[in-house]
Amino acid sequence: MSLLAKDRKPIGLLAGWGRFPIAFAQKAKSLGLPVVCVGIRGEASPELIALVPRFYWARPTRLGRMIRCFQREGVEQIVMAGKVHKANLLHQPWKLLTLLPDWRTICWWYFRKRRDNRDDTLLLSIIDEFARDGLRFESALTLCPELLVKPAVLTRRPPTAREQRDIAFGWELAKEMGRLDVGQSVAVKERAVLAVEAIEGTDRAILRAGELCRAGGFVVVKTAKPQQDMRFDVPTIGCTTIESLHRAGGRVLAIEAGKTIVLDQEQTVALADRYGITIVALT
After folding, report:
1. pLDDT bucket at 9, cuts 50 / 70 / 90
2. Can you list the positions of beta strands (E) in the chain?
3. Which site in 52, 95, 163, 226 is 20 to 30 Å from 249, CA atoms measured?
4. What pLDDT was estimated at residue 91?
């Protein structure tokens, strides 16, 4: 069943950090589609409360509460938008006490079989857990495909010949890191790797590259995983990415056309132009 189904059953929004959940809620509101949002506490923006008819907060370790909230409102389809910072969950001391998981989460974490705790493995396992209660996840991009960037040099300044060589070099590495489900971004200069994104996320990987390359002028390549599931973890950039790149001294951001979300594209490109940063979307 499509998110645009005529019976207008409410759509569930499981919202994490960033502007993607806000963009989705705004689009649904403009189309008159009712949305029930469960915001991950400590991640989701309070701005969402005013954008949806029904809103609930839930800790990231309260799967049982999330499921009950959606069921109570008659939700059958859910979209996942925004980031949950995994390092804050997996690597805390005394995490059972500090995170206060509910019984459903404890059963999922300790008794559901998983081969590892990489991003895709965890997210697919969560999708399976919701499916036990008849809740299906769909891609948020079904409703707002215009957020996916088209092939183009988005900024005024195109990449130089040297930067194009670094993009090609970084592209292969980023795809391999994605295949391994390690991260989606790499920073390179003169065909040498400065930083590879892992659990810390793109922005902090960019800042680490800046610490290691004081001269600046490096290239960041961010791609989708070869096995990218568009229901979750879609590569996303926005103004915060450009601010991080500027702060670190980066010069070029290369992204994958058709598989990357550019939030607030007009403002993001304008900010990059102001800083003299190149954004190029490639296939």
Report:
1. confident
2. 11-15, 35-40, 54-58, 77-81, 136-138, 152-153, 185-189, 192-196, 219-222, 236-237, 252-256, 261-262, 278-282
3. 226
4. 53
Residue 4 in any domain: the answer is no
Looking at residue 84, its pLDDT comes to 86
- Would you state the pLDDT for residue 96? 53
**Where among 98, 123, 142 does a domain terminate?**
142
Which alpha helices (H) appear in 16-149, and where do they start and end?
20-30, 63-72, 87-90, 95-99, 103-111, 119-131
Distance, in Å, from the CA atom of 84 to the CA atom of 182, rounded to the nearest integer, reads 15
pLDDT in tens, 230-274: 998 899 999 999 999 999 999 999 999 999 999 999 999 999 999
Q: How high does pLDDT run on average in the chain?
A: 92
- Please name which of 182, 146, 123 lies closest in space to residue 24, comparing C-alpha atoms: 146
- Is 28 in contact with 55 (CB distance < 8 Å)? no
Sheet with 219-222: list strands edge to edge: 152-153, 278-282, 252-256, 219-222, 185-189, 192-196
Query: Considering the entire predicted model, what is its pTM?
Result: 0.86
Domain extent for 189: 148-282
Q: Residue 265 has which token pair?
A: 């594209």
| CATH code where residue 264 lies | 3.40.140.80
On whether the CB atoms of residues 35 and 53 are closer than 8 A, the answer is: yes
Q: How far apart are CA 146 and CA 22, in angstroms?
A: 15
Whether residue 32 has pLDDT greater than 90: yes
Look up tokens 């189309």; give the residue: 31
- Answer with the one of 142, 173, 195 that is the final residue of a domain: 142
Nearest Cα to Cα of residue 69 among 104, 100, 32: 104
Q: Please choose, from the candidates 185, 178, 175, 180, the residue with its C-alpha nearest in 3D space to the C-alpha of residue 207.
A: 185
- In angstroms, rounded to a whole number, what is the distance separating the alpha carbons of residues 17 and 39? 9
CA distance 50 to 47: 6
